[in-house]
Specification:
The protein is mainly alpha-helical. The chain has nine helices and no strands. It is elongated, with a radius of gyration of 17 Å. The chain starts with a helix and ends with a helix.
């Protein structure tokens, strides 16, 4: 699995396809967050912006190989393992970007009434919840479930929007816990745990479907 993760990470970085989602996220944070704003609300915005970026990143990693290269990778490492490695690669990089954004926002935001450590923890949990929820959206919007590029992008955009506004979504709960907080950071443990469960179930379904259909 380590070799597969290195392979997909190298493809992702060398293709420079990561640049577009990273710039999108940087733009969302730059527009939505200003130094000196209340830190919890700013962290909620930074976490919410990570969801579509994570969905996009996962879709990139699942579709970046040509069919012939994908067949060789599947033959060498196993179809399900290769698919899982692509999913993990697409999800890990947004989590890292989110962690950096949370650290910057916590350092520049207004911490009045909120401890820095508590705000940082809440922000990291919310960012992880949004990244994993976005990763699940990206997995469902890509092969093997949706093969046509146009429909894949449409499903990704609609799924990202619904994941941010639908009641019961881990990402919505995590963001709401921060934005609606009044001075006291309440780490969204439950939302993060639900996002982990959602990501695990989605990855299992995606890997199983990929092994059967491709």
């Amino acid at each position: 699995m380590t070799a597969l993760l290195r392979y997909h990470s190298a493809l992702f970085l060398r293709s420079q396809r990561w640049l577009a989602p990273l710039l999108l996220y940087a733009a969302l944070v730059a527009v939505g967050v200003r130094p000196g704003d209340p830190v919890l609300g700013s962290l909620g915005i930074a976490a919410a912006g990570l969801l579509p970026v994570a969905a996009w990143s996962v879709r990139i990693c699942l579709t970046q190989e040509a069919a012939a290269a994908r067949a060789v990778t599947a033959a060498a490492g196993g179809r399900s393992r290769a698919h899982l490695a692509a999913l993990l690669t697409g999800a890990v990089w947004p989590v890292l970007a989110g962690a950096v954004a949370v650290a910057v926002v916590t350092g520049t935001g207004d911490l009045a009434g909120t401890g820095g450590a508590a705000a940082l923890l809440a922000g990291l949990l919310a960012a992880t919840a949004c990244a994993l929820t976005g990763g699940a959206v990206g997995a469902l919007a890509s092969r093997p479930f949706v093969r046509a590029p146009g429909w894949s992008v449409a499903v990704l955009l609609l799924g990202s929007l619904l994941a941010l506004v639908t009641t019961g979504s881990p990402a919505k709960h995590a963001v709401t816990a921060l934005v609606a907080a009044e001075g006291t950071a309440s780490p969204p443990w439950a939302a993060c745990a639900a996002a982990v469960l959602l990501a695990v179930v989605t990855a299992a379904l995606s890997c199983r479907a990929g092994a059967r259909r491709e």
